Amino acid sequence: MNLFTQIRTLVIETLNAMQAEGALPEGLDFANVAVEPPRDPLHGDMATNAAMVLAKPAKMKPRDIADALATRLGNDPRVVSAEVAGPGFLNLRLDADLWHGVLRTALKQGTAYGRSDMGQNKRVNVEYVSANPTGPMHVGHTRGAVFGDALASLLDYVGYDVTREYYINDGGAQVDVLARSVYLRYLEAHGQEVAFPEGTYPGEYLVEVGAALKDKVGGAYVDQPEEVWLQEVRVYSTDAMMDLIRGDLKALGVEMDVFYSEKSLYGTGRIEAALKALDAKGLIYRGTLEPPKGKLPEDWEPREQTLFKSTDYGDDVDRPVQKSDGGWTYFAPDIAYHFDKIERGFDMLIDVFGADHGGYVKRMKAAVAALSDNRVPLDVKLTQLVKLYKNGEPFKMSKRAGTFVTLRDVVDQVGRDVTRFHMLTRKNDAPLDFDFDKVMEQSKDNPVFYVNYANARVHSVLRKAAEAGMTFTDADLAAADLSGVTHEAELTLAKKIAEWPRLVEIAGRTNEPHRIAFYLYELASDFHALWNRGNDTPELRFLQEGNTDATSAKIALAKATSVVISAGLGILGVTPAKEMR
Question: In the β-sheet with 123-127, what is the strand arrangement from edge to edge?
């Protein structure tokens, strides 16, 4: 039940009636007519821009349209008043029973309240994390993992058929570096003293991998030339790192549907097939790129390469896909990978990249647009950096990782739920500060605590009601007489609950799961405000001693709040708390 959609339908029906009566000209497009919460709650319950967006095409004054619309809307029993404001905005006040109906719907539907068929079961691929398989996940990966996972859950909630996918970057030179680093640990396990050259991975997490390799092959690779062991150690090391990464993801509550290997694209004809598809469209050619702007690198020289005409699809320059020596550029397998996604039948693609991949967005969008003939949209979401603090100081690196703070460092310190929620308290493209002390505070300034505290308070009320001999099922609460739920603070909370279906669709339409976290904080704030009002005003307390009917109505409001909190936290991958410890 989306009450905003219902009232918008009423507005559109009224506009159609005005056209039939001759009060509006025929042929107007109502697509941009919106009904939304007013900027100032004092102005009403909902507001519509109908008169403002229709004035120009109707060749009428917006105020005249608004006055006529207000008169007609005021005749509907759901509308208590319709008031014109400013040049032609229309503010609506609604009958309290509409808000009561929202509570009943939430109680009947449970956490399905707010679910939508907006996505129409279209298939969407969300690729996220995709960390190089060279070590444990770091805090930057953590933010991308949480964002991508919450986004996937959000899209599922609004009716998309979602595939969660991890692209294993196991085809590049960094995996050779990993293999050489593991080989050094293997020699170390055999008692040799080793030194790690610059560019290798010195983290202690490879000690166990080297020892395990020794257990597997014994001394077969000791002091052998690289051509003897590199490929085998490469595969062994990558598998070991992916086991480590899968464990990290599990600790964060992330489960992937697909792990796709970059290596599977090489030697299988898939890269060639993707480039052939582009070539058939006249988008592949031999050419020489212009020199880069600014100071030229010392080793730069003009070279003829195979190029993708990405500028035809909005890129800044055409991009090389094959080097002058015949080898593939790093872009070529990425093109093939996205071509594979298109061929798998996805209707929409979403890539979650780190902040350092901003320069990669245009070329990747160009490739997908070209390969799909603009049929499959690609949305690339960049997650900005995370700065860690503890005791007011930057948090030091993990000794185990060697060079960075790991996902496990964070989760072990504060827990999965706190980590996930806090990673979504800022928009993905805004930097985020993660203070280990503040995220554990029990205060209003800590969003994850404040939201869960609201849910825990609801369950404490339910327990106290049961102790007083008043036990209510959700069906009991949905059938309760809510006519006494009329106080301003109570209706404010009910109105916020009514915003949930609208909010979740907006978040799904914009691919912005942080909106869920923001909304939950606002909902919790309204709940706590009502709770605190009850300290001074006994009739606002959720437990009305000796009055089962009044208590059931109050608890219906509280339980509906819990329903929405649980639904929202479910999207974020956070477990709702039933009591605070």
Answer: 258-261, 161-168, 123-127, 348-354, 378-383
State the Cα–Cα distance between residues 518 and 500, nearest whole angstrom: 12
Which of 218, 252, 286 is the last residue before a domain boundary?
252
Cα–Cα distances in angstroms (integers) from residue 395 to residues 197, 372, 387, in the given order = 27, 45, 8
Amino acid letter at 59?
K
For the cut 60, the answer to whether the pLDDT of residue 401 exceeds it is no
**What sign does the dihedral 557-558-563-566 (CA atoms) show?**
positive
**Sequence-ordered list of residues with C-beta below 8 angstroms from that of 498, at least 6 positions apart, any chain:** 3, 4, 98, 99, 102
pLDDT in tens, 564-574: 999 999 999 99
Beta bridge mates, 93: 81
Structure tokens at 285: 């050619």
**Which run of H or of E encompasses 90?**
strand 89-94
347 contacts 124 by C-beta, under 8 angstroms? yes
- DSSP for residue 457: H
Taking CA atoms, 565 is separated from 417, 453, 573, in Å, by 14, 11, 12
Q: How far apart are CA 39 and CA 472, in angstroms?
A: 37
Looking from the CA of 265 toward its CB, the CA atoms found within 13 Å total 27
**Judgement on whether residues 87 and 179 belong to the same structural domain of the protein:** no
Q: Strand, coil or helix: what is 306?
A: strand
- pLDDT (tens digit per residue) in 50-97: 999 999 999 999 999 999 999 999 999 999 999 999 899 999 999 999
Selected residue with higher pLDDT from 123 and 291: 123
Sign of CA dihedral 57, 58, 59, 60: negative
Range list of β-strands (E), 108-254: 123-127, 161-168
CB neighbours of 205 closer than 8 A, spacing ≥ 6?
135, 136, 244, 400, 401, 402
Closest of 273, 275, 368, 389 to residue 313, by C-alpha: 368
Domain span at 83: 3-94
Dmax over Cα atoms in the chain, in whole Å?
Answer: 93
Strands (E) across 136-200 are located at 161-168
* 379, part of any domain: no
The mean per-residue pLDDT over the stretch 109-125 comes to 97
478: domain CATH number is 1.10.730.10
Which residue, 108, 242, 249, 81, is CA-closest to 175?
A: 242
Identify each DSSP E strand in 409-516 by its residue range.
Answer: 432-435
Q: Structurally, how many domains does the chain consist of?
A: 3
Sign of CA dihedral 143, 144, 146, 147: positive
Last residue of a domain, one of 94, 114, 148: 94
The CA distance from 279 to 273, in Å, is: 10
Output the pTM of the full model.
0.94
